[in-house]
């Protein structure tokens, strides 16, 4: 058996990687431990939110599946950050935990060039520093030109509730043993992180009369390609912790998994457990808890904000201190998992390992947390593994091109102190890299490399033409005071639209072309006009950074012998940045160091023999 691309693990990274690799024409195998858990959402079944919705739409713009599958499976959706400007609005969907995976599996099953296989991988096939396949526990050796590891929380995974623990990748699933050992033999430096989840509670035992319903925004879309088609609606409610809740957690703090067991303590700071909240914010007693439905066909509720690893009887007592949950019953307990991860500075921005050929890594294995972060890496690893196997040059999304670029740039240049989660604030280009314009930003580049088909790209162009017509009309059309009484004389529509109280929809009566735009396209036009000044400022920063990003540094570039600081030398040799832009963001690398590297690059030599010449 031999493949172009072997993907290990059908989580969120693995599904995107395998789908896109196959779409690019690579003969692809997706091996996963248990087909029934393809695209499982082991924590909150929610997709999107600040920083993450941009990733979802960028994955979608590259032809990925996450947005389309979300459109088919969400049961509640909202626009977050609404109190801020529309440029940072973020769509978030509560998806049905059972429909999302089945929709994903359905699409993978129909993908040409893609084979699915249930098997547990326990090692890599490699020769010195080149990987050429995987070994399965049942003794098979499967060869591939490239291998992508997307094993999530499974590498030597162990789950915990208080002092109890058991080897597992997630609750009820075998851990992955053997792969970590091979990675270490291949010279990877590895770490260990943890993450935790909340109990799932029974909606029949919740008194919703004491909870507040959360607003729902119907009709939201997570994909350019397919209209939303939600299977139904189930509301989200809100309740709050109180002084008794937090006191009970604090009284039992020594029974949390991180204190009562040998679990590593490095967890996601931006997603703290209720136990950490009790310690970090001792004065705060009221924490908002969202009661989020797990699916249409189940009574399980995910109490978002209540990740916990205390003994199950105490979990129950903690929950029952909350108004509305006095009689609550737990269906599944909260627990934590710790697992091996690979420090991602050992990867190129294609997500191929720097020192091991043909091995790509994506998702939680790289120290990230979150479905969207995993899927975003998955699509980039999938594209590049396929391109490599097919003998084509790599495809990258750089920091100035999108949130995916920011994510991968940060992973490959910064030491992680904890599981990495995407946040809007991580991007200095967040006004330009919005969820609503991902398709316009990335489609052309994706099409130029065959990642989007001609038919797909034609659809993008067709919609773009409609938007351009509206942009032109806004520039050309003079609006008379009869339409807007605050005007004293006719003014160009574009100028009127800059006023905060005016919206594009108000102009349909004299610019009929607006009516054919979708709500999201209207929003894009409105943002581009209203925030033109801010966008231009960000764009000029982007253009200056782009110049640095376009200067590639060869992987074998020799820093020894260059007149740069010792500090810069150490970090550059360790990190091996792919571009001058990446080098500029490394702690310890100064402008003077960059000038020296730039001059060496301009001289046109990779400087391979410089140290021996001096
Ligand atoms: C308990 C828990 C709590 C979490 N809490 C949060 C949170 O608070 N916030 C958050 O954003 N995210 C959280 N998540 C993380 C979220 O689930 C992951 O970030 C996301 O699923 C990672 O996607 P992935 O594709 O990298 O891996 P996963 O979704 O974990 O998928 C890995 C896949 O690989 C397969 N696999 C593993 N090893 C092998 C092998 N040897 N052979 C074959 N197949 C293999 C598995 O079966 C699985 O299908 C939590 C996860 C868990 C388990």
Quick summary of this structure?
This protein is of the alpha+beta class and 614 residues long.
Account of the 3D structure:
By secondary structure, the chain is an alpha+beta fold. It has 4 domains: 2-196 and 338-426, FAD/NAD(P)-binding domain (3-Layer(bba) Sandwich); 200-216 and 224-335, Elongation Factor Tu (Ef-tu), domain 3 (Beta Barrel), CATH 2.40.30; 453-541, tRNA uridine 5-carboxymethylaminomethyl modification enzyme MnmG/GidA (Arc Repressor Mutant, subunit A, Orthogonal Bundle), CATH 1.10.10; 551-613, Orthogonal Bundle (DNA polymerase, domain 1). The protein has 20 helices and 22 strands. A hairpin with a 2-residue loop joins strand 10 and strand 11. The two termini are 50 Å apart. The structure holds flavin-adenine dinucleotide. Flavin-adenine dinucleotide binds next to helix 1, strand 2, strand 12 and helix 10.
Per CATH, the class of the largest domain reads Alpha Beta
Bound small molecules, by name, code or SMILES, are: flavin-adenine dinucleotide
What is the fold named in CATH at topology level of the largest domain?
FAD/NAD(P)-binding domain
Category by helix and strand content: alpha+beta
Helix content: 25-40%
Give the CA-based shape.
globular
Q: What would the average pLDDT be, to the nearest integer?
A: 93
Number of beta strands: 22
Our count of domains comes out at 4
Query: Poorly predicted ranges (pLDDT <50, ≥5 residues)?
Result: 607-614
- Major pleated sheet: 7 strands, mixed
What's the architecture of the largest domain, going by CATH?
A: 3-Layer(bba) Sandwich
CATH superfamily of the largest domain: FAD/NAD(P)-binding domain
What fraction of the residues are assigned to beta strands by DSSP? 15-25%
Compute the CA-based radius of gyration. Answer: 25 Å
- Tell me which oligomeric state these chains represent: single chain
Total helices: the number is: 20
Q: How far apart, in Å, are the first and last alpha carbons?
A: 50 Å
């Amino acid at each position: 058996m031999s493949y172009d691309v072997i993907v290990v693990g059908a989580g969120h990274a693995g599904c995107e990687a395998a789908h896109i690799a196959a779409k690019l024409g690579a003969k692809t195998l997706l091996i996963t431990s248990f087909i029934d858990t393809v695209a499982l959402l082991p924590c909150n079944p929610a997709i999107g939110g600040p920083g993450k919705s941009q990733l979802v739409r960028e994955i979608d713009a590259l032809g990925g599946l996450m947005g389309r599958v979300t459109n088919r499976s969400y049961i509640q959706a909202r626009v977050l950050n609404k109190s801020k400007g529309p440029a940072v609005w973020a769509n978030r969907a509560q998806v049905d935990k059972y429909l999302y995976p089945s929709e994903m599996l359905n699409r993978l099953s129909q993908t040409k060039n893609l084979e699915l296989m249930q098997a547990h991988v326990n090692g890599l096939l490699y020769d010195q520093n080149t990987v050429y396949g995987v070994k399965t526990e049942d003794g098979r050796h499967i060869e591939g030109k490239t291998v992508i590891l997307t094993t999530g929380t499974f590498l030597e995974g162990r789950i915990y509730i208080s002092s109890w623990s058991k080897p597992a990748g997630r609750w009820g699933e075998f851990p992955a043993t053997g792969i970590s050992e091979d990675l270490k033999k291949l010279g990877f430096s590895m770490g260990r992180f943890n993450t935790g989840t909340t109990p799932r509670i029974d909606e029949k035992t919740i008194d919703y009369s004491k909870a507040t319903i959360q607003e729902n925004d119907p009709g939201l879309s997570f994909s350019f390609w397919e209209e939303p088609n939600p299977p139904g609606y189930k509301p989200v409610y809100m309740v709050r912790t109180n002084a008794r809740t937090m006191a009970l957690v604090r009284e039992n703090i020594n029974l949390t998994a991180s204190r009562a067991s040998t679990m590593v303590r490095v967890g996601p700071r931006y997603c703290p457990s209720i136990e950490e909240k009790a310690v970090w914010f001792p004065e705060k007693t009221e924490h908002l808890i969202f009661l989020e439905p797990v699916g249409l066909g189940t009574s399980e509720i995910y109490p978002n904000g209540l990740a916990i690893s205390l003994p199950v009887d105490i979990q129950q007592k903690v929950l029952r201190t909350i108004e509305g949950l006095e009689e609550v019953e737990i269906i599944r307990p909260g627990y934590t998992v710790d697992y091996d991860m690979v420090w991602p500075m050992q990867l190129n921005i294609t997500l191929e390992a720097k020192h091991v050929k043909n091995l790509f890594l994506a998702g939680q294995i790289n120290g990230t947390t979150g479905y969207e972060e995993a899927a975003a890496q998955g699509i980039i690893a999938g594209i590049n593994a396929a391109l490599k196997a097919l003998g084509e040059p790599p495809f990258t999304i750089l920091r100035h091109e999108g949130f995916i670029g920011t994510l991968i740039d940060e992973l490959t240049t910064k030491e992680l102190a904890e599981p990495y989660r995407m946040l809007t604030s991580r991007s200095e280009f967040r006004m330009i890299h919005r969820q609503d314009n991902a398709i316009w930003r990335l489609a052309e580049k994706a099409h130029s490399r065959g990642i989007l088909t001609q038919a797909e790209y034609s659809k993008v162009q067709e919609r773009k033409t409609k938007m351009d017509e509206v942009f032109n009309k806004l520039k050309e059309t003079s609006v008379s005071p009869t339409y807007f009484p605050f005007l004293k004389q006719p003014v160009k529509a574009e100028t009127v639209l800059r006023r905060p109280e005016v919206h594009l929809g108000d102009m349909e009566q004299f610019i009929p072309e607006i009516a054919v735009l979708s709500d999201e396209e209207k929003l894009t036009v409105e943002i581009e006009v209203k925030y033109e000044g801010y966008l231009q400022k960000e764009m000029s920063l982007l253009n200056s950074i782009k110049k640095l990003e376009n200067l590639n540094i060869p992987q074998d570039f020799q820093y020894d012998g260059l007149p740069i600081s010792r500090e810069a030398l150490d970090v550059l040799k360790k990190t091996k940045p792919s571009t001058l832009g990446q080098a500029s963001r490394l702690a310890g690398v100064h402008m003077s160091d960059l000038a020296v590297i730039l001059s060496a690059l301009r001289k046109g030599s990779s400087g391979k023999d410089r140290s021996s010449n001096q």
